[in-house]
Design brief:
Layout: H1 3-10, H2 15-21, E1 28-34, E2 40-46, E3 56-59, E4 84-89, E5 95-96, E6 104-112, H3 123-136, E7 139-152, H4 181-186, H5 188-201, E8 207-210, E9 216-220, H6 226-246, E10 250-252, E11 266-274, H7 291-303, H8 308-311, H9 317-323, E12 334-336, E13 343-345, E14 355-357, H10 366-383, H11 406-414, H12 417-423, H13 425-443, H14 448-454
Parallel strand pairs: 1-6, 12-13
Antiparallel strand pairs: 1-2, 3-4, 4-6, 5-6, 7-9, 7-10, 7-11, 8-9, 11-14, 13-14
Protein name: L-glutamine synthetase
Cofactor: Mg(2+)
Family: Belongs to the glutamine synthetase family.
Length: 458
């Protein structure tokens, strides 16, 4: 590619990139996609080989793997032909790779079939499909996620428990120090690196706090377009891991990495605006809640139960929901400013009225979980589903308990005819079979607890 062409596609990059690169020559370009897990896969190439209209190919079989990398035989005709899918860069996502040894760019790609249609099982395609359904009604969803994660010592042996790293004082940070600035300062170098990497990529951070667990951090992102925000979450998970490794610690997004510490969630605040007016359709002119807000809530109560594998995708996900209590409500009740309910309405001005989904785990694929949550609210509005009465007290037991295991959640998902049709049966069938295989693989595992307590005692 000529120098002129390089300059043309560089024009689409952010000011943050040029500030980061300081005019240096771009060496490499990473063309990436989120897989079902939500991690990045793709190809890297010299910048001289890249152009914005480039088309690359990856085999569709990358979606046939479990989180452990095993391939799954599924009910898919000619599955192992391993047909190619086409990748097309979305240049609006292009940004720096600050942790790279050379000056590099990363860009998220959309995935297509050979006939030009979107790949129905690609996570980004699923979210775009849901957003298109909103657009047909003249609506635009707006979301804001909260990202929780743990900093840990490097865990080199999976049989060893997860340990809290030592902070600047030379001591491990204690748990239950939520909102403690002292606890945040303990990991100042890691936090500073996260901020630096985020700034160099143009990733905005709203706030950062110490959460309830020892070494547990929460980053809140600015509200915005669901696809754009999901891209940010995708980038942030990679960024946080790299920032941690730069400082000789691990960052984990497991839902429940430590037995006696709170789990990690991705709470998602959701509202919907009218495309023409920009007004929040959840609030009437007099500031009261609208029918659409009630129905969005009712749809969330009705359908979230059926799509829990999309928001709590692993066996470990349900340890957070079944053990943590207040920090992870295991119900679908709703209430205003009540953190014991799975669906919370934060206090806000009418123009900011929103519903917070508190059941999503941080181990989710952000595109899939956000799409599923918005789909539930959408079907509620379309079908005019009334919610249950608002919870007025703490909710520790409910008539709407969430599934207690991945296997139980998959049973609900299998029978979710309406929402599977909405999200796409091809995607749902593939996703279900992957999760069944992962659950079966886990059931074959013998845990340290079993060896410790059963080996010589039974």
């Amino acid at each position: 590619m000529s120098s002129a062409n390089i300059a043309n596609w560089q024009d689409s990059l952010s000011e943050e990139f040029f500030s980061y690169s300081k005019g240096a020559k771009i060496d490499g370009v990473e063309c990436i996609i989120p897989d079902l897990v939500g991690t990045s896969r793709g190809k890297t190439m010299p910048a001289t080989k890249f152009r914005p209209d480039i088309e690359m190919a990856l085999p569709i079989s990358l979606f046939y793997q479990t989180v452990s990398g095993d391939y799954v035989d599924m009910d898919i005709e000619n599955q192992w032909l391993e047909k190619d899918t086409i990748l097309r860069p979305d240049m609006s996502t292009a940004c720096a790779v600050p942790w790279a040894d050379d000056v590099s760019v990363q860009v998220i790609c959309d995935m297509f079939n050979r006939d030009g249609t979107p790949l129905s099982v690609a996570p980004r395609s699923i979210l775009k499909k849901v957003m298109a359904a909103y657009a047909e009604k003249g609506w635009k969803p707006v979301i804001a996620p909260e990202l929780e994660f743990y900093l840990t010592t490097p865990n080199l042996d999976p049989n060893d428990p997860i340990e809290t790293p030592v902070g600047r004082t030379g001591r491990k940070v204690p748990s239950r120090q939520v909102y403690s600035m002292v606890a945040v300062d303990e990991y100042g170098p890691v936090i500073d690196t996260i901020y630096a990497y985020a700034e160099q990529q143009g990733l905005p951070i709203d706030t950062l706090i110490q959460e309830g667990g020892a070494g547990q951090i929460e980053i809140n992102l600015m509200h915005g377009d669901p696809l754009h925000v999901a891209d940010q979450v995708f980038y942030f998970k990679r960024t946080i891991r790299e920032a941690a490794l730069k400082n000789n610690v691990f960052a984990t997004f497991m839902a429940k990495p430590k037995r006696d510490e709170p789990g990690s969630a991705m709470h998602v605040h959701q509202s919907v605006v009218d495309i023409q007016t920009g007004k929040n359709i959840f609030s009437a002119e007099d500031g009261s809640a609208t029918d659409l807000f009630r129905w969005f809530t009712g749809g969330s109560q009705t359908y979230l139960m059926q799509v829990m594998p999309l928001m709590a995708p692993y066996v470990n996900s349900f340890r957070r929901l079944t053990v943590d209590g207040q920090s992870a409500p295991a119900n679908l009740e709703w209430a205003t400013d009540n953190r014991t309910t799975g669906l919370r309405v934060p206090h806000s001005r009418p123009e900011s009225r929103r519903l917070e989904n508190r059941v999503i785990g941080m181990d989710c694929n952000p595109y899939i979980a956000i799409a599923a949550s918005l789909a539930c609210g959408y079907l509620g509005m379309i079908n005019k589903i009334e919610p249950r009465e608002e919870a007025t007290k703490e909710v520790w037991e409910s008539d709407l308990p969430l599934p207690s295991s991945l296997r139980e959640a998959l049973d609900y998902f299998e029978d979710a005819t309406e929402i599977r049709s909405f999200l796409g049966e091809d995607f749902c069938r593939l996703y279900e079979q992957i999760k069944v295989a992962e659950n079966e693989e886990y059931q074959r595992e013998i845990s340290p607890w079993e060896r410790r307590h059963l080996l010589l005692n039974v």
